[in-house]
Amino acid sequence: MSERENILGRIREALKVNAPLPGWHGERSAEHLSAGDPAANARNLAARSGTASDWLPLVGASVAEQFELFAKNAADLKADFQLLASRDELKAALLKLRDAEKWRRVASHGGELTDFACKALGLPVTLTDCGYDVQEMEQCDAGITECDALIAQTGGVAVTSRSAGGRALSVLPPHHVVLARREQLVADLPAAFALLQQKYAPDFPSMISFITGPSRTGDIERILVLGAHGPKKLTILCV
Amino acid sequence: MSTFVSDFKTRATEKAGDLRHRQVIRTALRGYEIVRDKRKAAFQSWESARQAAAETKWEAVNHLDKHLEALTAKLEARGTKVHWASTGEQAREIIAQILRDKKARCIIKSKSMTSEEIHLNHALEKEGFTVVESDLGEFIVQLRHEPPYHLVFPSMHLTRGEIKDLFQKELGDAPSDAPEELTMVARRVMRQKYIQADVGFTGANFAIAETGMISITENEGNARLTAALPKTMVTLIGIEKVLPRFADLALFLPMLATAGAGQPMTCYNTMYSGPRQPGECDGPEEWHVVLLDNRRTELLADAEQRDALHCIRCGACLNVCPIFRNVGGHTYGTTYSGPVGAVITPHLRGLQEWKHLSNASSLCGACTEACPVKIDLHHHLLQNRRNASASEPAFFERLAYQIFGIVANEPAFWSLAKKLGWLTQPLQKVVKGSALDPARAWTKTRDLPAQPRESFKDWWRNRK
Predict the structure, then answer these.
(1) Does a structural domain hold residue B35?
(2) Is residue B14, in this structure, part of any structural domain at all?
(3) What is the complex's ipTM, to 2 decimals?
């Protein structure tokens, strides 16, 4: 018999005895045991009201409030968020970054916003779409990607291996620049998960990543340091 | 007395008296409760979220067989190789065989407590593989040849000065003791390792049955790089980490971050559903997922304590535990320390040898209150005490309580005992804390309270 069957066998044997339902601290008694009635269990579990959106931190209903919350959360995370009015402003913002940090080479991927950005920057670009040299990407000053969603509740972005040029582009270069469209803002995490499921299921990209601020660590005396292994800077430009 | 007990007692005595150690831990945890409570308060209802999380985990664990089958089918459909291991030894052999097949030399590893549980690094190094821990805290304790001090903060017992000296000695590179500069040293060392490594190894925080995904939570980006650059990826995961649905993560990810470190969200929460897929530009060509039992099914079989498998390893119960804060993480001598370690270790490694951990608790219940998935931790400690004494009664303890019972039930004996107490108390002061003192376990570091001049009974009789 394979280990798979051994393990599943032990699990089935163990589950023949029912466990008390959760949340009955210190009052374990027969009446709280589920007593082998699956229907009763289902009823008990369904009895709670509301969904995750009702319990997680509050998000305003209007788009303006949500952008305000996103900006506040991003600032708390030490990410740079800029809400831009036009493509011209996007171009200006990118050029300002390029000049301030003396970018010489950037890495990016094919996409409507990223193509615009690469053209605007006028720098040599390492594109990931048809494979790339890892050492070359490591030498790039910034990784420029699109994304799937901005999440007002957390101030973070959701990227996937399909929307953001693979797995490494958003973590290898020292500065990650996310390009987003206004309509990509979602209120909260449940909305972001629903969006990803609707957009991709069942053929999900092999990597989905919720990026909430630039890479960080507190492993030395719990003191915050940015740029542990991933990007030291995260800039989110939204048009 | 087993060596586990005596080692625990020796280390606990030493650490509890080590004021420097206590200062370091206090500094490290100073801000934790404040930021965590601020984050909890930001929830519209943290209590409802806890209840929902507990119920979701209950559902997952109580239908574990179905969820594991669904998870496996989904993973395999996308080209992932799924392995099952009943024991740590089997898991080590599966992983070593993958490395041998790949002719791998260097393995870059992101944080995984499950790999600590099966002593993976040691086994792989013995076979000649180079294993590099990429999480900063894990990297630091690896350089010190030490196990992690805490589930989430592996190097919280070290000061920046100690880390500077360590880097100077082991890496020859430590410009100053500033955390920023020390972190950059590790960043420089690690960058090339990601690129050169043949295999990337990760742990996992959750597995999603519905969509066949593994979810990894981290702040540094080291797991992201580990899962992006090497050609082969190996993930080790305990069978209890399953969640039923993709959408469940919308609740669990912020709760893990809040309970674990007082963050709204951990920096990177990443779901992997396969190796590199057609049309994708990077990622591993092969992905192996190893599902580990290692006596988790024994805990599953104990219906009373089954909820201990709900644990998401956030470390909240360690952070608030007065015992953990005084004796420290290494004192436990277990992979999983603190209250949750005290509950599960007797199941994973033997009740009689690890029953002493059930007494490493003040039963204050701070752990139970802190747990985001409502594991009934302090009651489980009591249940472990009960189970341990039922399967192997402690003769002297039982005798002592029997004698106390007789004395306390018989007024004549009781007043005799009081008189004896009066007579022997001055004597106790002379032998206090020495080998002759019957109460020395208590009096070595404390004073025995003086017996009052007048007992309640005397006062009652003599009152006007």
Answers:
(1) no
(2) no
(3) 0.92
Domain boundary among B260, B294, B328: B294
Domain that holds residue B371: 307-391
B296 touches chain A (CB under 8 A): no
On whether both B224 and B131 belong to a single domain, the answer is: yes
A 119-148: CB under 8 A from B? 128-132, 134-135, 138
Residues B120 and B169 grouped into a single domain: yes
Residues of chain B contacting residue A73, judged by C-beta atoms under 8 Å apart: 264
CA of B53, closest CA in chain A: separation in Å? 10
- Residue of B280, B455, B452 whose CA lies nearest to A207: B280
The model carries a pTM of 0.92
Rounded to an integer, what distance in angstroms lies between the CA atom of residue B224 and that of residue B128?
Answer: 26
Cβ separation A28–B379 shorter than 8 A: yes
| Span B164-217, pLDDT tens digits | 999 999 999 888 999 999 999 999 999 989 999 999 999 999 999 999 999 999
* Residue count of chain B: 464
Number of domains forming the structure of chain B:
3
Q: Search chain A and give the residue with CA nearest B246.
A: A193
Kindly list the residues from chain A whose CB atom is less than 8 angstroms away from the CB atom of residue B182: 220
- Please report the sign of the dihedral spanned by the C-alpha atoms of residue A16, residue A18, residue A22, residue A28: negative
Question: Of B179, B190, B225, which is closest to A171 when you measure between CB atoms?
Answer: B225
Same-domain pairing of B221 and B274: yes
Distances (CA, A) of A60 to A63, A187, B44: 8, 8, 13
